[in-house]
Amino acid sequence: MAGQVARETWGSKAGFLLAAAGSAIGLGNIWRFPTVVGESGGAAFVLMYLIAVLAIGMPVMFAELLIGWQSRSNPVKAFQQLCPSSFWRFVGLLAVTASLIILSYYSVIASWTLAYIPQTYLGALSNAGNQGSNAERFENFTSNISYVISVYTIFIAITMMIVMGGIREGIERWGKVLMPLLFIILLMLVIRAVTLPGASRGLEFYLRPDFSKVTAETVLNAVSQAFFSLSLGMGIMITYGSYLSKDADLASSTFWVCMMDTLIAVCAGLVIFPALFTIPDLQPAEGPKLIFLVLPTVFSSIPAGSIFGTGFFALLTIAALTSSISLMEVVVTYLVEQWSWSRNKSVLACGFATLLLGLPSAMSAGALPFFTDLPIVGCSFLDLMDTIFGKFCLILVAMAVCIFVGWKWSIAAALQGVQVNRAHHLVIACWSVAIRFVCPVAMVVILLSLLFWR
User: Fold this and answer.
1) Residue 392 contacts residue 65 (beta carbons within 8 Å)
2) Which helix (H) or strand (E) holds 253?
3) Among 382, 262, 337, which residue's Cα sits nearest to residue 4?
């Protein structure tokens, strides 16, 4: 038990909120959210998404924080302590494994955004007059093995440097720097985007709901996006919750983390859609190619586009970094507590493993044909990893968390010692229903849709 005595805690509530919000705020908010909004018809989807965050995202996040807060341990040890001699520890192990694999390919995409910062600033994209030239430029970049691996290694090294500092001196300190910087850059980009000529068309698409476009698939996409954007099912909130002090207000912390995450996602749409609609030939439903193929065309066509573009890719990189830090911390905490390794040794081992595991993903966008189009499965290695670990594993872990808290561990045990004032009683009652019934059903529907619908 000596390891528990020396265990760190967050230095302040603000430090935890910024770090936890940073873990949730990532490429899913700034890249995937506008993409899904464009594909799902605009404002009506945004409204469905906000409802899904309240009904599903918040309850699952609160449950994960409770597991970490009550156990004060990493995801594997947390389930071992709360339910000894059972298979539940494998849920924690699956979460830790998913974090490591997701970090390996997530860092690849993050390194692309990092590489685009100097390219945009130095004007390499200033002549990006059409998507064809952008596609060729992107393919040339991702097929350059030495360049891709170099940038990928730099991004992992930055992540390692921050995590090596520990909770207060590393993650919390940098969270207090990176998150305000992210908000400042995003606010500047929003102001620039909404003042562009023709921005009103993009704002109307984004903010005026057309409920005739709402379908079952729209609702499903909204629930899926809310789930994935909050970084649930990875063990992150269990890990971060374990470093909270015993007098922490978990309910308000959950609320503010979800609100900050949602605010960033909504603001990202205020950047992209007004800018996108300034060019008549471009459509909002451009899909995942929106960032690297479409937006450079937008940047090259608006005043001060190189500055606008540089700020945008800097924003993406910061968002990706705050998420990669949290993913690595899950694995590092596990190694420190389960294997009694030092933090430095754990970070070095995790960083090296991430680098090796991510090499196939780094080479799956054109560098090596085998990893670009895998035999039998017919997709890239990166896409395969994202499907297995970034979708199925996360849903399974989140569903297991709901079942564990709601039925195995029990609501009463989970809430033991939690500060609950009169204003919270109704919220807690709603959470109890959501975690036992609403959230598990939603997880099953998402899982079945991934298996049979698409």
Assistant:
1) no
2) helix 250-276
3) 337
How far, in Å, CA of 184 to CA of 190, rounded?
10
Higher pLDDT, 199 or 301: 199
Whole-number Cα distances in Å, 345 to 86, 323, 349: 30, 21, 6
Both structure tokens of 440: 């598990």
CA distance 73 to 282: 49
Closest CA to 272 of 293, 292, 298: 298
Tokens standing for residue 396: 């399974």
Of 346, 450, 434, which is closest to residue 393 (Cα–Cα)?
450
Calpha distance 331→348 (Å, rounded): 11
Specify the CATH number of the domain 2-364+374-453. Answer: 1.10.4160.10
Whole-number Å distance between alpha carbons of 269 and 35: 9
Buried b (16+ CB within 10 A) or exposed e, 45-73: bbbbbbebbbbbbbbbbbbbbbbbbbbbb
What distance in Å separates the CA atoms of residue 59 and residue 405, rounded to the nearest whole number?
11
167: left (phi over 0), alpha (psi -120 to 50) or beta: alpha
Task: Count CB neighbours of 190 within 10 A.
Answer: 17
Q: Of 291, 264, 269, which Cα lies nearest the Cα of 112?
A: 291
- Every domain of the chain and the residues it spans: 2-364+374-453
Q: Does 1 have pLDDT greater than 50? A: no
Please give the structure tokens belonging to residue 381: 């290695």
Tokens of 310: 């540089």
Dump pLDDT digits (tens) for 125-170: 655 455 557 777 888 888 889 999 999 999 999 999 999 999 999 9
On the question of pLDDT at 31 being above 60, the answer is yes
Q: What is the DSSP string of 62-118?
A: HHHHHHHHHH-S-HHHHHHHHS-SSTTHHHHHHHHHHHHHHHHHHHHHHHHHHHHHH
Is the pLDDT assigned to residue 378 strictly greater than 90?
Answer: no
Q: What is the pLDDT of residues 60-106, one digit of tens each?
A: 999 999 999 999 999 999 999 999 888 999 999 999 999 999 999 99
Burial state string for 374-411 with b = 16 or more CB within 10 A and e = fewer than 16: beeeeebbbbbbbeebbbbbbbbbbbbbbbbbbeebeb
Helix axes 58-71, 422-433, angle to 10 degrees: 110
What pLDDT does 3 receive? 40
* Rounded-to-integer distance, Cα 426 and Cα 330, Å: 32
- CB distance 256 to 65 below 8 Å: no
